[in-house]
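Example with several molecule types.
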Amino acid sequence: MTDWPLLSVIIFLPLIGGFIILIIKEDPVGIINIRWAAFWTSIGTFILSCLLWLQFDSSNRSYQFVEKISWFEDLNFNYHIGVDGISLFMILLSTFLTPLCILASWKSIQKRIKEYMFAFLFLETVMIGMFASIDMLLFYIFFETVLIPMYLIIGIWGGERRIYASFKFFLYTLLGSVLMLIALIVIYKTTGSMNIAELQGNYFARSTQIFLWLAFFASFAVKIPMWPFHTWLPDAHVEAPTAGSVILAGVLLKMGGYGFIRFSLGMLPEATAYFIPFIMVLSIIAIIYTSFVALAQSDIKKLIAYSSVAHMGIVTIGIFLVNQQGLEGAMLQMLSHGVVSAALFLCVGVIYDRMHTRQISFYGGLVNKMPFYSAVFMIFMLASVGLPGTSGFVGEFLVVVGAFRFSSLIAIGAALGIILSAVYMLYLYKRIIFGTIVNQKLKDILDLDFREKLILIPLVVSVLLIGIFPNIFLDPMRQSIETIITNFEIANGK
Amino acid sequence: MGNNFLQILLVPEIALAILTSICLLYGLFSKKNSYVRTTNLALISLMLIPFLVFFNPTTNFAYYNELFTNSSFIQFFKILVIVGSLSTIIISKKYFIELKLARFEIPILLMFSTLGMLIMICSNNLMVMYLAIELQSLSLYVLATIKRDSLHSAESGVKYFVLGALSSGILLYGFTLIYGFTGSTSFENIYLTIGKLDNLNLGLIFGLVFVLVGLAFKVSAVPFHMWTPDVYEGAPTSITAFFAIVPKIAAVAIIFRFCLEPFGNFYNEWSQIIIFLSIASMFLGAIAAIAQNNLKRLLAYSSIGHVGYVLIALAAANDEGIKAVVIYMFIYMIMNIAIFAILLSLKSSKGFVEKIDELSGLSKSNPLIGLSLAIIMMSMAGIPPFIGFFGKFYVFIAALNKGLVVLSILGVLASVISAYYYLRIIKVMYFDEINSNFNYNFSISYQSKFILVFLILIMTFFVFYPSLLISFASSVHI
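Resulting structure tokens for the full complex:
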């Protein structure tokens, strides 16, 4: 079994499933087959990636499941993939959310089902591939390829202003990532290597580091997104179909955080130290500003989109604290946000499928008609706020603790963000769920059906799992995080 | 080496010249179906030439007192030119018949033009280069006006002729200046003569600038691009396909050779001009295309933009630059052949599709054609994993190796701008509501279908196995 290329199978299984789907004819019977084929492909991928987790050796700090095939021989680029503690959970997050997305689109997507399922499976391949890449060119190719399926998902199956949103999404993120291409070539030119694992350390002169750091910042800050580069996000979220928002919030935003950890911290420690105050200021502005913006929204999806920006602000604070608590907190917060924001978007999707509006003022008193839904929604809402026992708490708590070691001012900023998140989330919950039903159209609204329960219950389980047993997630990533911190401290002479 | 008669025949250019004459006679004397017959003969003749170029049995003999030369770079571009014109003839055969433009002169003129390009690529002397450029241009002027009763076509041909003649004049004036100040027209002698100078004197700089202006016109680099959109739009689409693919390849080859061979030691003098042309082309190509609604005009601006990237590789002037241009022109050729293969077969109720709006709903009525067009557009925009990305990637590697950081950054920014209009075509096909007025009729000959499928597969799956092209490109030297 040791020779079995498990990681490559996980990466390419969805794509193969996607090609099979392309062959199926799109008639009434075929449509059902397409849906099931997509679902089982993604479930298979998820099971395989769980196998990856089980076989992962937490005490080993280097990459595992490494595969290396010569690719661009002249430049010594390789098809070089592997998993370490940081990428493992990103891959799991992607494979976990994709089947849920496919289930969530079961009824709401009625046109071009074949292309839709293909786009999702293709997207899954690309996301996993990106997190598993050790070669930087491979990473870049996956990083940019993500744009194509996402562009199509927003543009074809999106809402009214989908064209505007899809163009904004595509061009905005492309603009960021092309600068990374220049940075990658400069790295290659200076070191002669494209190997992310080899380049972890301090290999560049200070001035080069600053240039490279800014180029990487351009792409990751747009992706994560940091204030003031976040403006594409609310548009993309609002216009994307539910499953598109789920993947966007759940996984694509994490690509930015992942990139910061791998490239900025891992390869450019001196420049990172130089830019820490800059990041902290931007993150705190992001947390406070977007929290207030979220408070003022009348569209549920937009509110959650802005809350994502605020939560990712906590992640960037955690990453750039560069200490044990901060990084672990940031990683957990990313996982938690991946699950929770995905769940919140799915919850919005549930009522949107019934009422076809996302206006907060339309709803009210849903608890009377949808008790199960209200309970599930409450768990996610509280997880988003960071209630102890849910996933949100551990990450945010660790980041705040780490921030106190760094500067109490930043800790106060981060804590303020948590309080504000409680304000807008509880206020949202109150307006949608509580009260009596005023709107006559809501009289006949139905509670969750079996399919929706099947989507939301795994998410509830994982929210509680991360919240109650954070160590099963923290242990595998600990070694990798320590390596990064040690590198950083050596480089900066601490 | 004995100059026996057979060896003369095996020189690719001579062979092509003779075969073209045979085709001409054949076309003249065949009474029925002269177009189809001549085209078939022309295709067979052209298919022979790449082998002659590749095996090249008469190397030393074919130099004629150093008037010509040979290298792997030249061989590669010659083969590319021939393959390009072969493919255009194949994909446009049906189009000419449907447009009732089936004259047997067309393949003949295309062959003469190709002959001119072959000579131009391997010329080692200013006079030969000039004559070759004229041979190919004159054929192209006629081809632009081939649709004689169309005002549009005539206008475009005249425009092309007047501007082309002007640029040829400037080019020739540059040659005379270079000759006047070096006393020679041979590339090697010029190189040796000016190699002794510390810096170029004023006359030579003028000569250099004039020649570059003339060549910039041929590759349609900004600000000498004005003719391109009009000619592309006015000429019949099949001729546009030829314009977009073949002369571009040849002109790029000669501009590389001219800068790197006789003036190789004076990088600083010409690189400023090339860098300016490159930046201007990339940005104008990207921005002007946004406002276009005609696909052919859009492709004209797109080709202007692509030339900008090629000139980055020239500005790098190193081995990576040569590799980059080889890869880039190959990719450019296959992307353009593919898109023109679609345009030449796609009809809506209004005739052949030329407006972007007419593509709306194509993804629904012809899903495979829509998908192919989307892949080509993504590839042209340089979005990985499609092949277009790798062309740009190698160009930027070359530029950054030379330290041209600002140029590279401007290059990637222009590529983001240009992504907009490529995406717009995908938007029209996939996002817009279907316009029920258009009934698409996609009729394609099986030869061009084969070419199209083959190229789309290359574009999509190149990423899995790049070594073949890359290792070949690494072995090419100027």
